[in-house]
Amino acid sequence: MGQIAIIDYGVGNLKSVANALNYIGQDSVVTADPAVIGRADAVILPGVGAFPDAADKLRAGGLDRALKSQAGRKPILGICLGMQLLFDRGEEVRDCEGLSLVSGTVERIETDLKLPHIGWNSLTFPNPSPLFRGLDEGVYVYFVHSFCGRAGREEDVIARTDYGAPVVAAVGRDGVYGCQFHPEKSGEAGLTILRNFAQLNR
Fold this sequence. Notes:
Elements: E1 4-7, H1 14-23, E2 28-31, H2 34-39, E3 42-45, H3 51-60, H4 63-70, E4 76-79, H5 81-84, E5 89-90, E6 96-97, E7 104-108, E8 117-122, E9 140-145, E10 147-151, E11 157-162, E12 166-173, E13 176-179, H6 187-198
Parallel strand pairs: 1-2, 1-3, 3-4, 4-13, 5-7
Antiparallel strand pairs: 5-6, 7-10, 8-9, 11-12, 12-13
């Protein structure tokens, strides 16, 4: 893949994503320019923080329209809050519209365990996806979150984990992918996921 655009809308850990892509030899650019996003071969939407703040910042820069215009044309990967923004709406702080690139809502994890969920958890793969090529069920990845997606279509769920309750760990539909965990912080397993994403258009 030529170049991956990492969207800069003021709420993402951009440097760690860029560093991970650089480590695997993948060219990337951090940008808030819709034109640059349009020229890129793939797009990553990172994110940390609260859903409504992030959604507002995306819309303020016209980046919501830029993302929607590229969906179906090139691979898109949402990471952590970036994955949550792919859904129809979120319930964190207040009800808020998402990008509606994946059907479903984002809700607080229903668990008796301490929130936020921080740490390493294993994955299962209910539906096959090229994003996890070369990885076995039970692989561990790194999470930091209190909210999670509830997919409207079970076939969109490509990974789950358990945190006192089933949690959607990754989704995928029509070239749009989301990882609730941080692949850029998940060691060799995470680098494999990023390599797989970078190879989707090859």
